[in-house]
Each structure stands twice: as C-alpha cells, then as structure tokens.
C-alpha cells in the first residue's frame, strides 16, 4: 500500500500546480511507493495546515509570508526552493480621483486590509510592505498619508486553492475604493476587473517595475517551496521525488506554452486573458524551482520587514533555514 503525503498550493502560478494537475507528481511519487493527496481533500479542520504546517507530511508551494511566520514560531519546516519571477505590484486608484502619481498620495487615504480570524494576515503585510516601498521610492513619508484599516471577513485564507471551482470573493478594500472610502489600494488589477468590472481604475505605480529585483518583495515574490521538517528528515527520498516532479513540470511548460498557461490561469482563478495581462510574457518558461542567491536575498528582506512590523515572534535567517541538499540531489538524478 502506497504511503500518502499531502500537498497544498497557493493560487500563485507555479510548477507544483502543473506537476499535480498534469500527472508528473503522481508519476514520480508512485515510482517510490508514495501517493500525493491534496490537503484540501481532507476534512476542512485540516486545512489550516496550509498556514501553520501542523501536518508532519506536508509540502507547500506558494506565498512566502506564512512559511516565514511558521518558521519564526518554531514549527518544523524546511525551505527547499524559491522562484523569483517578475510580479506586477500596482498601486491602484479610481480613474476619477485626480491622482496621477505616488506624490499625489500625500494626505490621502491608503487602504490596509485587515483579516479577522486568520493565523497570519499575509494580505495586510503585503499591502503594508508594497505601499510603504512605493512611498519611500517617491520621497513620501509614511506619516504624510492616512492609513485606513479595512476589515475583511471573507474567509479567503483557509482554503488554499484546493477547491477547483472556488471564486475570489470581493475584497473589502476594493469595495472601499468603489465607495470612495479610501483613495488608493495595493493589489491586483485583474482582481478588480473580475469582481467589479464597472469600477474604473488606473495604476499610478508598479512597485516591481520601478524598483525591480530584490527590493520589491511581496508575498508571491519570491514564491517558495517548503516541506515539513519531520518528513524531510525521516523520508528524504520523497522530498527528492517531489522536487523532481516540479522540475519536470517546469521544463515541460517551456515546450507547451498554451497548455501551461491554461493551467496557470486555472490555478489563479483567472481567465486566460487576465492571466496573460498580469504576468510576464515568458512566465511559463521560468517556473523551475531554484536557490538563486538574489531570491534568497529578497526573502531575507521580507523576513526582516515582517519582524520589524510585528508579524514575527523571532527573526528568521534565510540562509540557515535553506537546505539545498534535496534540490541538488533532484537535479543530479534528472541528469
């Protein structure tokens, strides 16, 4: 009888989703007597492990804030690989606002989403980090704007993307922008289009485009692949097999653009048009898990920000957290 391992994937375009949905993951794990099971197929009471890692047999690929938070709390989790792919990070205002630049945000109301009953509010941290960086890069002090906490009670954060028909729920900050209760939000233009097509908005600044590389870190930049420490220690062969499946999927995607992009659009709850509008043209070619020093530097910037802003209990040293041995073995076996 095959041993089960569990996996969970954020709605962030990555190789694990392709590996799981195109059969590569099952194929590689079955070779060594394992069966992959998506976490969200279990009882819903198990789903919070997507954030807490309170499952000793779990892999997770997606946003970096929950794993950093988990590591800071002392829970056993291993950083296996990262991926630093350009991430569109817009500051959005209403078209009729009269705001044309970040400098125009002086004295304006900036939305900070606050989610109740969540383990780690990664949306809040992402917006806070993105908006603070946009202000800093444009010579505007964070004390020169009004920070408006917008409460979300949407239950968006417990399900990962395990439910194939799940649709994003209108975020409270988008609704606040529509009602004129705030002047700017940080987020995804495609989410605004999907949820409120009648709301006319414009992007006044793209944090990634203006700062680039490591500075513009947010929850999905870089994307990270992690695993339960107990599983990594006791059954390292399954970790290597999992990585091999993700690498195979990433390499397959390079040669199958249309099929890959359809899967990535599905994963991010987007139409193909919206997916392509919000991701770099060559995104599908750049999904392979790696340990690029630049990506690890970006992850350290994120960790330091989270600590300074009170999201972490203890500092996390990214270099010490990273275990490169599994990726090295997977790459060697694939040769």
Radius of gyration, whole Å: 20 Å
CA(first)-CA(last) distance: 30 Å
Shape: globular
Range of strand content = 15-25%
Tally of separate domains: 2
Q: What pattern of helices and strands is seen along the backbone?
A: EHHEHEHEEEHEHEHEHEHHHHHHH
| Main sheet summary | 5 strands, mixed
Q: What share of the residues lie within helices? A: 40-55%
DSSP, total strands: 10
List the topology elements.
Elements lengths: L2 E7 L5 H7 L2 H7 L3 E5 L10 H4 L5 E5 L2 H8 L4 E7 L6 E5 L14 E7 L6 H16 L8 E7 L19 H8 L5 E2 L2 H7 L5 E6 H5 L11 E6 H6 L1 H20 L1 H11 L4 H7 L14 H16 L9 H4 L3 H10 L1
Helix pairs in contact: 1-10, 2-10, 10-11, 10-15, 11-12
Describe the protein in words.
The chain folds into two domains: 3-85 and 220-334, Periplasmic binding protein-like II (D-Maltodextrin-Binding Protein, domain 2, 3-Layer(aba) Sandwich), CATH 3.40.190.10; 90-211, Periplasmic binding protein-like II (D-Maltodextrin-Binding Protein, domain 2, 3-Layer(aba) Sandwich), CATH 3.40.190. The protein is built from 15 helices and ten strands. Mean pLDDT is 90; it is low at 156-168. Helix 5 links the parallel strand 6 and strand 7 (146-152). It has 335 residues and is an alpha/beta fold. It has helices at residues 15-21, 24-30, 49-52, 65-72, 122-137, 172-179, 189-195, 207-211, 229-234, 236-255, 257-267, 272-278, 293-308, 318-321, 325-334, and strands at residues 3-9, 34-38, 58-62, 77-83, 90-94, 109-115, 146-152, 185-186, 201-206, 223-228. Helix 10 packs across helix 15. The strands form three sheets. The protein has a five-stranded mixed beta sheet with strand order 2-1-3-10-4, sandwiched between helices. It has a three-stranded antiparallel beta sheet with strand order 8-5-9. It has a two-stranded parallel sheet with strand order 6-7.
């Amino acid at each position: 009888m095959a041993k089960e391992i569990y996996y969970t994937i954020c709605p962030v375009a990555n190789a694990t989703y392709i590996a799981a949905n195109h059969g590569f993951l099952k194929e590689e794990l079955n070779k060594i007597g394992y069966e992959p099971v998506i976490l969200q197929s279990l009882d819903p009471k198990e789903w919070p492990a997507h954030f807490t890692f309170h499952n000793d047999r779990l892999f997770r690929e997606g946003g970096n804030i929950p794993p950093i938070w988990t590591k800071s709390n002392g829970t056993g989790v291993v950083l296996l690989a990262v991926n630093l792919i350009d991430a569109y990070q817009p500051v959005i205002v209403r078209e009729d606002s009269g705001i044309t630049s970040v400098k125009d945000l002086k004295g304006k109301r900036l939305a900070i989403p606050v989610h109740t009953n969540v383990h780690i509010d990664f949306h809040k941290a992402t917006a806070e980090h993105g908006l603070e960086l946009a202000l800093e890069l444009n010579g505007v002090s964070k004390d020169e704007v009004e920070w408006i906490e917008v409460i979300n009670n949407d239950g968006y954060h417990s399900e990962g993307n395990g439910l194939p028909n799940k649709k994003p729920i209108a975020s409270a900050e988008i609704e606040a922008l529509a009602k004129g209760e705030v002047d700017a939000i940080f987020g995804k233009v495609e989410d605004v289009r999907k949820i409120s097509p009648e709301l006319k908005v414009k992007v006044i600044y793209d944090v990634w485009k203006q700062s680039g590389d490591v500075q513009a870190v947010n929850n999905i930049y870089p994307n990270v692949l992690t695993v339960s420490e107990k599983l990594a220690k006791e059954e390292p062969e399954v970790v290597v097999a999992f990585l091999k499946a993700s690498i195979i999927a990433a390499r397959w995607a390079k040669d199958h653009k249309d099929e890959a992009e359809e899967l990535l659009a599905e994963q991010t709850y987007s139409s193909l048009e919206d997916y392509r509008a919000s991701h770099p043209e060559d995104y599908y070619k750049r999904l392979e898990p790696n340990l690029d020093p630049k990506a690890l530097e970006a992850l350290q910037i994120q960790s330091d920000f989270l600590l300074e802003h009170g999201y972490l209990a203890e500092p996390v040293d990214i270099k010490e957290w990273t275990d490169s041995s599994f990726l090295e073995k997977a790459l060697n076996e694939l040769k």
